[in-house]
Amino acid sequence: MPATPSGARGAIITGWGTALPDEIVTNVDLESKMDTDDAWIRDRTGIAQRHVGGTTAGLSTEAGRAAIEMSGVDPAEIDALVLATTTPDRMVPASASTVQNMLGLSCGAFDVNAACSGWVYALVTAHGLIAMGSEKVLVIGTDTLDRITDYTDRNTGILFGNGSGAALLEAVDGAGQMLGWDLDSLGEAESALFAEIGGFLQMEGREVFRRAVRLMADSATKALTSAGVSSDELALVVPHQANIRIISASLERLEIPMEKAAIVLDRTGNTSSASVPLALADALDAGRVGDGDLVLFVGFGAGMSAASAVVRWGADRGPALERPGRAGT
Ligand code: COA
Questions:
Q1: Residue from 35, 185, 209 whose mutation best tests the ligand 1 pocket (most atoms within 8 A of CB)
Q2: What is the C-alpha separation between 159 and 260, in angstroms, rounded?
Q3: What is the pLDDT of residues 43-65, one digit of tens each?
Q4: Sequence ranges of the domains in the chain
Q5: The CATH number of 11-171 is which of 3.10.320.10, 3.40.47.10, 3.30.420.40, 3.30.390.60?
Q6: Distance between CA atoms of 111 and 122, rounded to whole angstroms?
Q7: Which of 51, 52, 268, 328 has the highest CB neighbour number within 10 Å of its CB?
């Protein structure tokens, strides 16, 4: 749907939703498929179980519908659907097109692939659309990693699962929620984590771990600087849910206590593009975020990509303030 640039204006999240397939694979279930054990996986990753099954379009539709219903927005008024996924159902078309049809939307729809940073990339992209005149944008993050994970390979099979999370963004006259953001990519490290078309994920676990801690801390610092806030002002951090030890090491670098982190990976494993919105929804549903609270989203993943955003929760409908700043790279 065409839109007219309208100058500085921001967005607020007015609804959110999630979807997880019914089938659960516990660490104990994996013991019969590979040389591993429940205690090792919990200790080294923090993961106890993951969900498998479903399709990227199906899970996206469920999460997206919940976000739309919560916001109370008429689906006919949605201007764009941005779907972050690294596991589309088909090569062509974008899974967003299928989701648009299943949700009965009349709007532009496209996929964003930035691996596990995808939802934060999509969130920033959606803010760009709103700054250019869109009124309502649905931002979904979904992955069905069971289709590219070898559950007999103990190097990767313990980590990944399926899920979806969505947020409905609405334009506001003022600056909106987003105060600052950062998008990064370190293409030289792409061989640390990849899947060829039709193949399984291949990973150098220690290398990914080492780079992830630094990438998360660096990207978060850039977003915080661009937002003009310090880490001790944050009420909540919503990190990519890859490994509890990566989260704790990166938060230590940022001097943020672990109590401020939103964590769902014990129940979901690493759901890639879905992990940040799943953890955000969990924290919101638990009442962990109040009006005026500062929240940091920080993702990293294959690429290696990284993305962060700082938002001030609540409905900022005041006069237009400064535009969100973009961190330098
Ligand atoms: N179950 C049981 N033992 C295992 C195991 C498993 N699944 N995987 C490895 N081990 C063993 C190793 O054989 C090794 O044994 P040894 O000391 O007798 O030689 C020991 O555990 C340590 O292996 P190592 O590879 O050093 O483990 P690690 O502490 O690095 O943990 C990962 C492995 C994969 C959990 C960890 O490297 C990691 O999380 N990396 C980041 C991966 C990630 O987040 N990817 C997604 C990014 S979006």
A1: 209
A2: 23
A3: 999 999 999 999 999 999 999 99
A4: 11-171, 178-262+278-312
A5: 3.40.47.10
A6: 9
A7: 268
